[in-house]
C-alpha cells in the first residue's frame, strides 16, 4: 500500500524563528573561528551564550525539561543546553562524531517543548559548517 499522499504537509518554519536560527549559527561560527575544536562543551556553551547576548537575544541556559506522561509530571533530569528567544532549541556537543542518538535527543526536546526548530552544534570539527545540523518538526 502506498502512503505517500497521506501525510499532512507541515507549515514552514516561521520567518522570525529562521532569523533567530541564523543568528545562532553566526554566533557559533564566531566562537569556533576564535577557539577552534578541542575544548570542553561547557567552554563552548559559555562563549556561545556570550555571543548570543551580545546580539541582544534572550538565552535560557540548562533549562530543566520535565516529561509529562498521562497528566503526571516526571522530573527526569533532562536539561536543554540552550533555548534562544523562546523558540529555538540548541543542543551543544564537543564530540568526535555526532551519533543518531544526539539527533534523536534534539527531536525529543522539540516534542517535549512544542518548539519546531532545533540546532545540534558540534564544535569538535575542523570546519564548524560540518558540525551544525538543523532539525525541524
How many DSSP helices? 3
Q: Unreliable runs, pLDDT <50, ≥5 residues?
A: none
- Mean pLDDT score, rounded? 93
Subunit organisation of the chains:
single chain
Order of helices and strands: HHEEEEEHEE
Q: What fraction of the residues are assigned to beta strands by DSSP?
A: 25-35%
How would you describe this structure to a colleague?
By secondary structure, the protein is of the alpha+beta class. The chain has one domain (13-136). Helices cover 36% and strands 26% of the residues. It has 3 helices and 7 strands. Strands 1-4-5-6-7 form a 5-stranded mixed β-sheet, sandwiched between helices. Strand 5 (88-93), helix 3 and strand 6 form a beta-alpha-beta unit. The longest helix is centred in the first third of the chain and has 21 residues, at 15-35.
Sequence-ordered SSE layout with sheet pairings:
Blueprint (H helix, E strand, L loop, with lengths): L14 H21 L5 H14 L4 E6 L2 E3 L2 E3 L4 E6 L3 E6 L6 H14 L3 E6 L9 E5 L1
Parallel strand pairs: 5-6
Antiparallel strand pairs: 1-4, 2-3, 4-5, 6-7
Helix pairs in contact: 1-2
Structural features:
137 residues, alpha+beta, two-stranded antiparallel sheet, 26% strand, globular
Quick overview:
By secondary structure, this protein is α+β, with helices and mostly antiparallel strands. It has helices spanning 15-35, 41-54, 100-113, and strands at 59-64, 67-69, 72-74, 79-84, 88-93, 117-122, 132-136.
